[in-house]
């Protein structure tokens, strides 16, 4: 079991994180600003043992660079499917109902 288990919520201007240190039972929350590779890389470098950490990243715009930096640091990381629970936008549903549906949705 990893010694750190957590997740990232990805926003345009910041990354919000929560994680649990499983050894000591400590919970940490915070933000990484601005939300870019360099600041994330610096934050990951502060982890005591990044090879023994696992994080999930919200599967939205920006998740790819977050998981790439997690892998670069040696952390386990994967996008989560949180965005899939919101359902499909109505325009997509209309387009799937046939050509007339797309015109009606536009």
Distance between the termini: 49 Å
Strand content: 25-35%
CATH topology: Nucleotidyltransferase, domain 5
Which regions have little confidence, pLDDT < 50, spanning 5+ residues?
83-106
The number of helices is 4
Lateral arrangement of strands in the main beta sheet? 3-2-1-4-5
- Give the overall shape: globular
- Percent helix: 25-40%
Strand/helix succession: EEEHEHEHH
Describe the largest sheet.
Answer: 5 strands, mixed
Q: If you average the pLDDT, what whole number results? A: 80
Content-based structural category = alpha/beta
Number of structural units classed as domains: 1
Number of strand segments: 5
CATH class descriptor name = Alpha Beta
- Rg (CA only): 18 Å
CATH architecture: 2-Layer Sandwich
Describe the structure in brief.
About 30% of the residues lie in helices and about 30% in strands. The chain is of the alpha/beta class.
General description of the model:
- The protein has 106 residues and is of the alpha/beta class.
- The chain has one domain: Nucleotidyltransferase, domain 5.
- It has four helices and five strands, in the order βββαβαβαα.
- It has a five-stranded mixed beta sheet with strand order 3-2-1-4-5, covered by helices on one side.
- The longest helix has 11 residues, at 63-73.
- It is globular.
- The N and C termini lie far apart (49 Å).
- Residues 83-106 have low confidence and may be disordered.
């Amino acid at each position: 079991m990893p010694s750190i288990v957590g997740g990232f919520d990805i926003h345009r201007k910041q990354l919000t994180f929560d994680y649990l240190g499983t050894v000591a039972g400590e919970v940490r929350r915070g933000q990484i600003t601005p939300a870019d590779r360099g600041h994330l890389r610096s934050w990951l470098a502060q982890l005591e043992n990044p090879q023994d950490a696992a994080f999930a990243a919200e599967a939205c715009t920006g998740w790819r660079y977050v998981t790439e930096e997690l892998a670069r640091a040696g952390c386990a990381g994967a996008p989560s499917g949180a965005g899939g629970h919101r359902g499909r936008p109505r325009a997509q549903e209309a387009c799937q109902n046939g050509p007339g549906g797309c015109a009606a949705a536009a």
